[in-house]
Amino acid sequence: MKKYTNTGSKDTRSGFGAGMTELGQKNENVVALCADLIGSLKFDDFKKNHPERFFQIGIAEANMIGIAAGLTIGGKIPFTGTFANFSTGRVYDQIRQSVAYSDKNVKICASHAGLTLGEDGATHQILEDIGLMKMLPGMTVINTCDYNQTKAATLAIADHHGPVYLRFGRPVVPNFMPADEPFVLGKAILLNEGSDVTIIATGHLVWEALIAAEKLEEKGISAEVINIHTIKPLDEEAILKSIAKTGCVVTAEEHNILGGLGESVARTLSLNNPVPQEFVAVNDSFGESGTPDQLMEKYQLNHQAIIAKAEKVIKRK
Predict the structure, then answer these.
(1) Active-site residue set
(2) What residue numbers bound the domain in which 208 lies?
(3) Element (H, E) at 26
(4) Per residue in 7-29, pLDDT tens?
């Protein structure tokens, strides 16, 4: 297997910004809409180079979604940008009615997702967004793990026809996926082969899963690690192939334990091959103010938690 190493830490939102810069040059139908957060969403280069295709909507997220839906009728490919909380919870009605139900080709791009928004606190740290978006018929849901994968996903969704929710974050995190790694919607990436336990991770927890696998190996436990960047459609084939070998699974996500990746995996297992599963996720609570590292430790979203759940689930086989 390929060895994945940290090539330098970057924030995933900058990967989105780099992808938008490239899309601006490649595809004249791509337009960008922002809800008064140009710097936070890294729209600066796109706005500078393509002012005629950039729309500052202001703090009017519902209006932004409605405008984006309308732009698709003229053949444009709108990318909307704001914080994940405002991209989903604040505008769910508009997304459901104007985008998902109407099957509009809108790309809803959401930064500052999860607990790692940090000091802004619980009102901004949405932990329900994956569940909200995956329940919408026809909605593709993507949660990227690092800068390179976020850039690749941004480019890929421009070529995919249909509504997309792209989730990424604010903090600087390890950048370990190769820049030339193909991004295929709905196709999981096997990062590490193993035989004792499957670890299925998404977003910021993918790197933590790789660390956990290394430390488990030191204990004589062979862990298979799968990067699920597309939560919907879910790569059920990859999951079932892995658990047929290992016989148990740990899911890891920066999201509420209810409604996220873990529940999607559990449904797949229950319908096909029920095996023991443990969850690393926020246990049905809101977040709080703190640094990203403090919050990930308090809410047990790290490699230590993955290791503990792996050892627990192996005993349940």
Answers:
(1) 61
(2) 189-315
(3) helix 12-26
(4) 999 999 999 999 999 999 999 99
